[in-house]
Amino acid sequence: MKINQKDLASGILLVLVAVVGAYLNMDHNLGSARRMGPGYMPLLVFGIQGGIGVLVLLIGLFNGPDPMEKWSGVDSKSLVAAVFGGLIAWQLSLRLGGDFFTSGYNAMGFGMMIGFFIMCWAQGWRLMGFVCASLCVFALLLEKGGLVLATVGTVVVASLADTQHVKKPLGVAGLTIFLVALCWWIFIKQLDIRVAVWPQF
Amino acid sequence: METLLANLGHGFVVAFSFQNLLFALIGALIGTAIGVLPGIGPVATISLLLPITFGQPATTAIIMLAGIYYGAQYGGSTTAILLNLPGEISSVVTTLEGYKMARNGRAGAALATSALGSFFAGTVATILVAASGPLLTSVALSFGPADYFSLMLLGLIISAVLAQGSVLKSVAMVVLGVALGLVGTDVQTGQQRFTFGVPELSDGIGFVSVAMGMFGIAEIILNLEKPEAREVLSAKVGSLFLTKEEFRRATPAVLRGTILGSVLGILPGGGAALAAFGAYMLERKVSKGRHLFGTGAIEGVAGPEAANNAAAQTSFIPLLTLGIPANAVMALMGGALIIQGIQPGPRMVEAQPDLFWGLIASMWIGNVMLLVINLPMIGMWVKLLQVPYKYLYPSILIFCCIGVYSLNNNVFDVYQTILFAIFGVICNKLKMEPAPLLIGFVLGPMMEEHLRRAMLLSRGDPTVFLERPISASMLAIGAVVLGAMLLPNLRKGKDAALSG
């Protein structure tokens, strides 16, 4: 037996989604074949998906070996820390953070950002952590902070992902100024999207 | 024939308006740029620019987006020939013979062959789209819901079969895409499905978020993992003129590539990349210079380059006539049309003649522009390669952010994109192809609607799918295609063709 870890994981993922989906689908009326209710198609889709998932899983037991990238101890620890840290940050900011965090998705976004920053602690997650965190920074800053601040925050955080940038902060500064000017010219001057340019108080 | 000419004439009038010419040029320039740059492809770029097109008239928007797609085919070959670096997946095979030609001092000839071959193929494909559009449309109008359902099912099967890697996993990705498409309000009863009470999800998961997350952001994360290895070399381009001998050898290859590319472009799941691989395999088997392959055979440049451009254009046919996107790029085009309030499908030719014929005419105009953009200005594009990725990716990220946000002026879309970016990375690590998912996601809701309608009309009798001849033949083809992939020989052939 040569186990194909990638196929095995894919199979588990597919089956899991299918089972959860089918469970959630129990709320929906199935109807009949003639008059299909909202639950008919989902049941069909999740049924097929579960079947394929089982097949992928079974075949994955034999068509390997295709091992996945190894996670170091730090990788798994930081992932757990990120999930819990993010959840705690979400709930705390929602309860204690005041108006900003209770409106819209800001508390959730703040939690996600904290989680992604914790992930960056591990070498294996650094790139994904910084790139995703930079998107969170954008979403958090845009509406209250305006386009300029959001662009600066996003570009700076995203640049942390590349180790070459960390050594040369001047390049990042130049890039940031260039992008702020470019985004202002394209999105505000030319396309006139409805977004504040400067911070709103 | 006369109506065809009259219609094309109308199309040229539309395409020659200042605004449409300008945006065809912008599309061609952006397309060439992303074609030259490795690491960013047409899917990511078009989803990035989608929000920008909202303010424009539909025709202008589609003309620009189409320019990006076929422009990328021209640009991709430049770096493939000069630097042995495919800017696009569709130009991977061009590196094989093109770079050898460049090392033999015939870079100019290879570039000229690729540009002229692409131009010829583009012209033929334009005529093909114009001629087959109205023809297929009239056929499509006789389609019932059962036929549509089977046609879409066939499209999904072929797109899964032709995707890279395991067929079974690609089918699974298609189904996963259909499942994602279920989220939102049920059209017939108004019931919320899988929305978890989130109001933003009642219109379904944002298509741009899925595309941008899985193709744009995930790609950036994966590109950053690989160390940057870009050999900046000042290759001598040399004379752009072909010798008589080269011209004599390239011509039949261009013709074969054009025919093969046009056919493979129309197939669901096909498109530029598949056409280029197919044409390369064909040239290696049948061309007169096949013994020269591996040493810089001009046929190995001419065939694939003609094929990828022909396919990039004919892949519009299923979208414009049947409303069914053949590949991920076309799914985005369909999305752009729907956002503009135009339902792609057989009624579009009648209802939107400006858009249909204007787009076709602009394809030809765009090809002329690309010829000019690419041949004399080749040095400028090579310079573009000197921009390091560390400056490119923050720029792409910020454009993604603003683009996604301005879709609905809602930060929820940005968070949604993050989730799909992570999902895209996971899929890549597990060797699950994202392209079939996108097609399933787009076709899923349409399939459900047609399935429900067909079953209502047949009073719950599923044999309707086998009784209607169109539907039955679609299903039969689908079954044969799936069955054929179980044969080990064919599968090996496909793997060899797709991995280059």
How would you sum up this structure, described in words?
The complex is a heterodimer of chains A (201) and B (500). By secondary structure, chain A is an all-alpha fold. Chain A folds into 2 domains: 5-60; 73-190, no CATH class. Helix content of chain A is 72%, strand content 0%. Chain A contains 8 helices and no strands. Chain A has helices at residues 5-24, 40-60, 73-96, 99-102, 106-119, 126-159, 163-167, 169-190. In chain A, helix 1 (5-24) packs antiparallel against helix 2 (40-60). Chain A is extended, with a radius of gyration of 23 Å. Chain A starts with a helix and ends in an 11-residue tail after the last helix. The model of chain A has no long low-confidence stretch (mean pLDDT 86). Chain B is mainly alpha-helical and 500 residues long. Chain B contains 22 helices and 2 strands. Chain B has a two-stranded antiparallel sheet. In chain B, helix 6 (145-162) runs antiparallel to helix 19, helix 9 packs across helix 10 (272-286) and helix 9 packs parallel to helix 11 (299-314). The longest helix of chain B has 49 residues, at 92-140. The radius of gyration of chain B is 22 Å and the shape is globular. Classes of the chains: A mainly alpha (201), B mainly alpha (500).
